[in-house]
Write a structure and sequence with these properties.
two-stranded parallel sheet, 5-stranded antiparallel sheet
């Protein structure tokens, strides 16, 4: 299986937020943003694996500033880490008021996707080629998050016996 560069599967999706996306005060619903995050990360996963992927978990989703009707939402995603059948994809969301030019960091998230074969069973994923210092840093941080997740699962098994 040939390794692939991070930049070959990275993607940015831009969408203008409308009344349909918002509450009566004009604030875009977090769920709308979450769906765009999941969809964009899924595109990265499919581009990298060349096949079906499914969301296994959203490790973190932090909202930093509101998004309003009329804003352009820019959702950028790239692979941070690849395991045997799963991968972590990092997503950054920015909102732009294209009238004033103001850009706000709106949200960040880390999602784990699993690659599936035609029988919906996990299948191996191509390794990634880390070319830049930023890609190497993100990969290192993703490995630390993975270790923390695995440790939390193990601790939960031992502490929650009823």
């Amino acid at each position: 299986m040939e390794p692939k560069r991070v930049k070959d599967s990275s993607v940015t999706v831009v969408q203008q937020m409308t009344q349909q996306d918002a509450n009566l005060a004009g604030n875009v619903h977090g769920g709308v943003i979450m769906k765009l995050i999941d969809n964009t990360a899924g595109i990265v996963g499919v581009r990298h694996t060349g096949g079906n992927v499914v969301t296994a978990s959203i490790d973190r989703l932090d909202f930093h500033s509101p998004v309003f009707v009329g804003d352009l939402l820019r959702v950028s995603a790239s692979i941070n880490y690849v395991g045997k059948t799963s991968m972590e994809i990092g997503v950054r969301v920015e909102a732009e008021n294209f009238v004033t030019g103001e850009v706000r960091h709106t949200a960040s998230a880390y999602l784990t996707f699993v690659s599936l074969d035609e029988k919906f069973k996990p299948r191996p994923i191509p390794p990634i080629i880390l070319e830049t210092d930023d890609e190497k840093r993100r990969n290192c941080e993703a490995q630390m998050r993975r270790a923390a997740r695995l440790q939390a699962v193990e601790e939960g098994k031992t502490k929650c016996k009823i």
